[in-house]
Specification:
The complex is a heterodimer of chains A (285) and B (736). With 285 residues, chain A is of the alpha+beta class. Chain A is built from ten helices and eleven strands. Chain A has a single domain (24-279), classed as Alpha-Beta Plaits. Chain A is globular and about 50 Å long. Helix content of chain B is 29%, strand content 18%. In chain B, the strands form eight sheets. Chain B has a seven-stranded mixed beta sheet with strand order 7-6-19-18-17-8-9, with helices on both faces. Chain B has a six-stranded mixed beta sheet with strand order 25-27-26-29-24-28. A four-stranded parallel beta sheet of chain B has the order 13-12-11-14. In chain B, strand 8, helix 6 (162-175) and strand 9 form a beta-alpha-beta unit. Classes of the chains: A alpha+beta (285), B alpha/beta (736).
Chain lengths: 285, 736
């Protein structure tokens, strides 16, 4: 990203996400999560711990909100949508169980965390990923402060010895690093798996095939609630799902032809342009 | 390489650890090790074997041992160590999926608190010993010259299946013993007994995917059930297309309850009344014919009209009407009973009542269908319950045994304190051998000899699932890596060694359990290498035959208890399970799905009850039964009956390891001596307690923390749409 390059291609750099974003994207990794299928079992979350070397912080640090769960299952008891429609009364919803929400980095295309980083440790890749460069990170935590989803996790401590006493350290995934004190981290869409798939496709002189690899959370999900793929591939499952449920990238408000379609993005109105679409939970009333 | 009889390359090559990994890694690098009649060519160490190419992960198939379900897994191995467990897509149990406990298997394997050396109790203390000493002691106590009479020996295990079950039996045969106690706290033993009596088969196939409406009486099939991953995959089908309706009646909201369309807080022990009340509604309001039921059953059903049912069960009449309406209009339906319903003092009657409701609804043959059974009954899963725990405690008290082998179970932790099991074992049984991977309560407190086992990722075995699926399979367990410790041994190897002492004619020919297994597979005419690659041996199963037969049930009146006004629900969690995973840090840090509490115990309580006691979330309370008292923090929420206090199982370990020990409380210790008369199963959910304020308080540590992550505050985080809209727009075709 030389200065020359920036000056020559200025118009491109000035493009907002509404015009297709900063890059000529090679991929646009995206996700669809069906809340009708999600049962809140937590398999995805522990699978993420296993794949991504997430540290165990222990009870005390957990109480200080220092847990490192890149993928977490939020659980709510109220349902504003149904309450607004007068279909349920506030406080009565316990009769319909809980509302589970798997929350992971939304890989926003207009990420609020990116522009505030003083050292460009978090930036947008040509894959459409919101990447975190651990080596650059100086721990200002501005990004975390600016994330409306609270999905960035800061290493307040050096967890290595506490979290992986011998021989637990042998479980660590060598495909990615263990982050040390003072560094911000978050969901990468399993970038190490993306990397392998891209390399293999390149070696075989072909494109990445939809479904040839899965993110760790998607792979373990017993109800197949999570669909992951390349949104630039018109044939991918995730593209089709977004299309079917009438959600488009690059918008802060969707204009659905059929408002009954279940797709929505969390806090979309903040104009973050997330790459994760959720499908509404379904309720008998 | 050690230079012992067989070196590692031979070892791996003979066992065909090749194709699966290479196929998955998708590379065509040359195999550098060749074999001519078992002899190895000289190969430079500079040429890496295929499974140690730096940077390339290879996958080996094995079977998950974290709970008795028996999911198939692919272990990712890189540079000689296993890194991650992933589901085996070919397994009819889990279709490539895996729950959090399965994911955490690697942390059991690499656990820093594993038992690594044999230990012998000397003067009250466990003292480290060599294997030679351990085996000498075994020989002295159970060998041919020990004078041990066959009926003075027993096995006490968790669920075992496959060739391990065969060996367990073989050891009993060689001793002339007939006692094998199988103990599982999370079980469906009562349902199995009811099924046997009313359907003719203990474990039919439940078609959750075929049902259009499901009513679960405490059957947590998505959480702490018999095969959570399998039923979750079926649940996904159930919820797509015409989207089935899920109703759950239970005293405390389980994970399944948290996904219900209608969750009903039922007074514990009255689930049978609710089932018959719904049956009555079906007859009166919906004109269902029940002529096929015996007259006395028809008569019994008429006793439970809507008002009576609502009054006894505490479930509002309009909810009963609604549930009945759904069950009637959405066929086929399915009624399931689970632990909170069947582990009562009249649990058999309750489970039988729910099966009667299935018969009224015509579900037998539609959603309860014949499953496929393995044609080898000797390999079938020996399923456990708590009746065997009771029987064992009684036999021990009577001084029935001189030697007991424990495996895959931790009764010193799970047995209620009234049994005084540890003390009785110490004084009445001369020789207690504990085969275990961890220094748990049973090993530390009662064992005379502790034999450290390989982890499931280091050991051989075969497993047969207890539940019925589309296909009958034998699921393979094979080592994913070299044992971490040179001084642990495989379960099969140890049992074989003991067998050799007693019966060398038959068992002397097997060098080890691997040799035994591969020969057994030869006898099955199975392709050993292919079976290891796929991890599964699919066999032509035998179809079960179901003969529905109604039985008479009798439901006792509900009784209040003035001294102990509350019901204790010792709920099971998909996570720590019955406490066996308490030393796995991932599972300690994984929040409970409902309360979101981490790293500790808690007591769930209804807001009305909390108000009455003057406590709120975070306050400590004491929960007291006639057997003792525990003290823990309150979590107040609506998903629980006001007369119930729920304390989850899993914590409160006195031993086990750094993550488990001294953390939280164990509700199983409070269980009163009550049991189901028909099956002998403990009434785990039948204990009455009183609750008092302990007078101290601190923040309950959980995800989100106080005041956060409980409410959406009007934001569209979890958006919702009605089922009518869903069926109209997505209807019969699953667009995903």
């Amino acid at each position: 990203m030389s200065l020359k390059n920036i000056l020559e291609n200025w118009s491109q750099y000035r493009r907002g996400h509404e015009q297709g974003g900063h890059h000529e994207y090679e991929h646009m990794w995206g996700m669809a999560i069906d809340l009708n299928k999600c049962i809140g079992c937590n398999a995805c979350s522990v699978a993420c711990y296993a794949e991504n070397n997430l540290a165990i912080v222990g009870k005390h640090r957990y109480s200080k909100s220092q847990a490192m769960h890149w993928m977490r299952i939020e659980r709510y008891w109220d349902e504003p949508e149904l309450e607004k429609a007068g279909l349920v009364t506030k406080g009565k919803t316990i009769e319909t169980g809980a509302s589970f929400l798997p929350m992971l980095c939304q890989q926003c295309n207009a990420a609020t965390c990116e522009p505030v980083c003083p050292v460009a440790a978090t930036y947008h890749t040509p894959d459409g990923l919101n990447a975190q460069v651990y080596n650059r990170c100086i721990g200002s935590r501005y990004c975390s402060n600016n994330c409306p989803y609270r999905l960035r996790y800061f290493n307040f401590w050096s967890y290595y010895e506490d979290s992986w006493p011998e021989p637990l350290h042998m479980q660590l995934n060598p495909d990615l690093s263990v982050r040390d004190k003072g560094v911000m981290e978050k969901c990468t869409f399993c970038v190490q798996r993306i990397r392998v798939a891209k390399d293999e496709a390149k070696m075989a002189d072909r494109k990445v095939i939809d479904g040839e690899f899965q993110t760790s959370c998607q792979q373990s999900c017993p109800t197949d609630a999570i669909v992951f793929g390349d949104m630039l591939d018109p044939q991918s499952r995730v593209t089709k799902l977004w299309k079917t449920h009438q959600v488009e990238l690059g918008k802060s408000k969707q204009s659905k032809q059929n408002p009954d379609k279940r797709g929505y993005r969390v806090l979309e109105g903040l104009n973050t342009d997330p790459c994760i679409m959720y499908l509404e939970r379904v309720r008998e009333v | 390489m050690s230079g012992n009889q067989i070196n590692r390359r031979d070892f791996l090559k003979i066992m065909g650890w090749s194709g699966a990994g290479v196929a998955l890694a998708g590379c065509d690098r040359p195999t550098t090790v060749t074999l001519h009649e078992g002899k190895e060519e000289v190969v430079s160490y500079l040429m890496p074997e295929e499974y140690v190419i730096p940077g390339v992960g290879v996958y080996y198939a094995t079977t998950c041992q974290q709970c008795p379900a028996g999911c198939g897994i692919h272990g990712r191995v890189r540079e000689g160590r296993v890194l991650k467990a992933e589901g085996n897509p070919d397994s009819p149990v889990n279709y490539g999926k895996l729950c959090q406990m399965g994911q955490a298997g690697v942390q059991g394997h690499y656990n820093p608190d594993r038992m690594t050396k044999p230990h012998i109790r000397k003067g009250g203390n466990l003292v480290e010993a060599s294997w030679d000493e351990a085996m000498a002691l075994l020989k002295q106590k159970v060998g041919p010259d020990s004078g041990l009479a066959g009926d003075r020996f027993a096995w006490f295990t968790g669920q075992v299946s496959g060739h391990q079950a065969v060996l367990v039996n073989a050891l009993m045969d060689s001793l002339g013993s007939e006692r094998h106690y199988v103990h599982e706290v999370v079980n469906n033993a009562v349902t199995r007994a009811v099924n046997k009596d009313m359907l003719g088969v203990a474990t039919p196939r439940y078609r959750i995917d075929e049902a259009k409406a499901i009513l679960s009486f405490g059957a947590d099939f998505l959480g702490a059930g018999q095969s959570p991953v399998h039923y979750a995959t079926e649940y996904a089908t159930f919820r797509t297309g015409d989207r089935g309706v899920l109703m759950v009646a239970e005293p405390k909201m389980s994970l399944t309850g948290a996904n219900a369309d209608l969750w009903m807080a039922v007074r514990p022990g009255t689930e049978g009344v609710l089932a018959l009340g719904i049956a009555n509604e079906l007859v009166i309001r919906h004109k269902r014919k029940i002529d096929n039921l015996p007259a006395e059953v028809r008569d019994l059903i008429t006793h439970y009209d809507l008002d009576t049912t609502a009054q006894i069960t505490g479930v509002a009449g309009d909810r009963i009407v609604k549930a009945t309406q759904w069950l009637h209009s959405r066929t086929p339906s399915l009624v399931l009973a689970g632990q909170s319903a069947e582990n009562q003092a009249h649990g058999y009657q309750i489970a039988a009542a729910t099966m009667l409701l299935n018969m009224v609804l015509g579900n037998v043959g539609r959603t309860i269908v014949p499953g496929t059974e393995l044609p080898f009954p000797q390999l079938a899963a020996k399923q456990g319950g708590t009746a065997d725990l009771r029987a064992f405690a009684k036999a021990v008290e009577q001084g029935a045994y001189d030697a007991v082998f424990f495996y895959n179970t931790n009764p010193a932790y799970t047995a209620p304190s009234y049994m005084k099991l540890a003390e009785k074992l110490q004084s009445k049984v001369g020789f207690k051998v504990v085969l275990t991977q961890f220094p748990d309560e049973t090993a530390k407190q009662i064992a005379d000899l502790v034999l450290p086992l390989h982890s499931p990722f280091e050991d051989w075995g075969t497993h047969v699932a207890a539940s019925s699926y589309d296909e009958a399979v034998i699921s393979m367990q094979q080592p994913l890596m070299e044992p971490l410790y040179p001084t642990t041994r495989g379960f099969g190897d140890i049992v074989l060694d003991v067998l050799k002492m007693r019966d060398s004619d038959n068992y002397g020919q097997y060098a080890d359990y691997y040799a035994y297994l591969s020969q057994a597979f030869g006898a099955l005419s199975a392709d050993w290498q292919k079976t290891l690659q796929t991890g599964l041996l699919k066999v032509e199963g035998q179809a079960q035959r179901i003969n529905a037969k109604a039985v008479k049930v009798s439901l006792p009146d509900y009784k209040q208890n003035a001294e102990f006004p509350y019901h204790l629900v010792p709920s099971a969690r998909l996570g720590l399970w019955d406490g066996r995973h308490a030393n796995i840090p991932w599972l300690q840090e994984a929040p409970d799905q409902i309360s979101k509490v981490v790293w500790d115990s808690w007591a769930e309580m209804h807001p009305a009850t909390a108000d009455k006691l003057g406590v709120s979330t975070g306050d400590y309370i004491t929960v007291t039964s006639d057997q003792g008292t525990i003290e823990t923090q309150v979590y107040v929420f609506n998903g629980i009956h006001p007369d119930v206090v729920a304390v989850p199982m899993g914590q409160g370990h006195e031993e086990y390891g750094r993550y488990a020990k001294g953390r939280g409380v164990n509700p199983l210790k409070l269980i009163s001596p009550k049991h189901d008369a028909k099956t002998g199963e403990l009434a785990l959910y039948g204990t009455r307690v009183k609750v008092a304020k302990a007078g101290r308080s601190e923040a309950l540590v959980r995800m989100g923390g106080p005041g956060r992550n409980e409410a959406q505050l009007g934001r569209k985080l979890v958006a919702t749409v009605t089922a009518d809209v869903y069926r109209r727009t997505e209807g019969a075709n699953d667009v995903a």
